[in-house]
Amino acid sequence: MDRFEAMRVFCSVVEAGSFVAAAERTGLSTTAVSRFVAQLETHLNVRLLNRTTRRMSPTEEGFAYFERCTQLLADLEEAEAGVAGEARRPRGRLRLTAPIALATLRLAPAFAEFGQAYPEITLDIVLSDNVADFAEEGLDLAIRVGRVGSDNLVARHIGDTALFVAAAPEYLARAGEPAHPGDLSRHACFTYSYAASGNQWHFENADGKTAEVRVGGPVNANNGMLLAEMAAAGAGIVQAPCFVLAPLLAAGRLVRVLPEWTLRRLPIHVVYPTRRHLSAKVQAMTAFLTRWYAQHAATVA
After folding, report:
1. pLDDT for 2-47, tens place per residue?
2. Claim to verify: residue 77 and residue 96 sit in the same structural domain
3. Which residue segment(s) compose the domain that 118 sits in?
4. 291 and 257, same structural domain?
């Protein structure tokens, strides 16, 4: 058995999530991929993968082995490049996930600019508002607003975004405009499935006074853009990041509610698994987004 080739194939299976997808990535047959993994399990005398008809995921031992293999293969690649006299440069496939609204409304120009700066990197972007599992989704990095996820991840802060509360003028004309955060408990307020604070909205005014209100309403959803559009249609009040609400506020379809009260700002992080060695492509994207947010801070918050 070619131990290093078996390691590469096993890592591809974990990253891709199936033998079939790993076979497409490595250029091997599905049978060959399965054989490599079986040989590794026999050699190590341990089961590396949980196999079901619907999905495949690493066992606890398999994930630990995957992380060590990733480090070892990265070291080997770097050593070979050094011996050959090549500079280690960012290249290959970079699989990342980002929230739907943030990626669509803010980060699309950044991704386009990154692609021009690093033509040897192929971006594989998965848009999701859920906190995805790195191993199960085969991710290299994630861009996350608010919650980072597991404590076993490395998070690099790249920016922040403000939260606003807004409603359509026709809704406020019909239901009345709240004068205090507590008034929101009597309004139709939309709730967001992935909000860290659930349906508790927290406010603070310029005098340092705070208010917390439990809201509720006719709609809960896992997509902020949907809730914003429903609010713009006059169905209720929405709380969302400014990058979601800004276009609707600018168009006059929404107006801010309780503008004298501020809500907490949400941090934006680039997140990646804890590893001793980061690939050049992950380092490149992390550094690029950090610079990009710094350069566009006035327009992307």
Report:
1. 888 999 999 999 988 888 888 988 889 999 999 999 999 999 999 9
2. no
3. 92-159+268-300
4. no
* pLDDT mean over 165-183: 97
Q: How many structural domains comprise the chain?
A: 3
Q: Residues 122, 34: one domain?
A: no
Answer yes or no: do 143 and 67 share one domain.
no
pTM here?
0.67
Check which CATH number belongs to the domain holding 42 and give it: 1.10.10.10
pLDDT for res 53: 61
* Averaged pLDDT, 121-130: 92
Q: How many residues does the chain have?
A: 301
CATH number at residue 293: 3.40.190.10
Domain identity same for 74 and 201: no
Answer yes or no: do 173 and 250 share one domain: yes
Q: Are residues 184 and 254 in the same domain?
A: yes
- Per DSSP, the residues of the chain read --HHHHHHHHHHHHHHSSHHHHHHHHT--HHHHHHHHHHHHHHHTS--EEE-SS-EEE-HHHHHHHHHHHHHHHHHHHHHHHHTT------EEEEEEE-HHHIIIIIHHHHHHHHHH-TTEEEEEEE-SS---HHHHT-SEEEEES----TTEEEEEEEEE-EEEEE-HHHHHHH---SSGGGGGGS-B-EETT-TTTTEEEEEETTS-EEEEE---S-EES-HHHHHHHHHTTS-EEEEEHHHHHHHHHTTS-EESSTTEE-PPEEEEEEEE--SS--HHHHHHHHHHHHHHHHTHHHH-
- Exposed/middle/buried for residue 137 (C-beta within 10 Å: 0-12, 13-18, 19+): middle
Q: Are strands 92-98 and 163-167 parallel, antiparallel or unpaired?
A: unpaired
List, for residues 41-58, the tens digit of each pLDDT value. 999 999 999 887 667 889
